[in-house]
Specification:
This protein is α/β, with parallel strands linked by helices. The chain has three helices and seven strands; from the N terminus they run βααββββαββ. Strands 5-4-3-7-6 form a five-stranded mixed sheet. The protein has a two-stranded parallel ribbon with strand order 1-2.
Length: 140
């Protein structure tokens, strides 16, 4: 894992921060590595009132288009709570390495995280949008 000084700044709303802390604490026995990673992200985040969070910032429920810098592959996902996760349709849990890495980032930022094959990979946020419009349709 990279040193704290090299990590990109992240910002979370109070509502997301409080809920995610409870989720991470509850998951420590089930997925300790990811829970610990999410806790570290929460500890280093700047916390603002939920309504002050920019729409270009990754938050719970939003759609995120990101690029894996190693492979060049772009992926569109919705960041959700564990109970809502369905990777087949692109709904990834914040309690996964990728989900925990994306939370709080903004468009244009990159983050390095451990890869499944050992070593690390870098993800770059290309676009962030609300998960649904008022009619329930995806925005991206």
């Amino acid at each position: 894992m990279q040193a704290q000084a090299q990590l990109p700044s992240i910002t979370l709303g109070t509502l997301d921060h409080d809920r995610l802390r409870r989720i991470a604490e509850g998951a420590q026995r089930i997925v300790p590595d990811v829970a610990e990673y999410l806790m570290r992200e929460l500890d280093r985040a700047t916390i603002l009132k939920t309504e002050a969070i920019s729409r270009e910032r990754v938050r719970m429920g939003c759609l995120v288009k990101y690029r894996d810098e190693e492979t060049g592959q772009e992926r569109l996902v919705q960041l959700v709570y564990p109970i809502e996760a369905d990777p087949v349709v692109g709904r990834i849990s914040v309690l996964t390495p990728v989900g925990a890495a994306l939370i709080g980032l903004s468009e244009g930022q990159s983050i390095e995280l451990p890869s499944r094959r050992g070593g690390s990979k870098t993800l770059t946020i290309l676009r962030v949008r609300s998960g649904q419009d008022r009619g329930g349709h995806k925005l991206m």
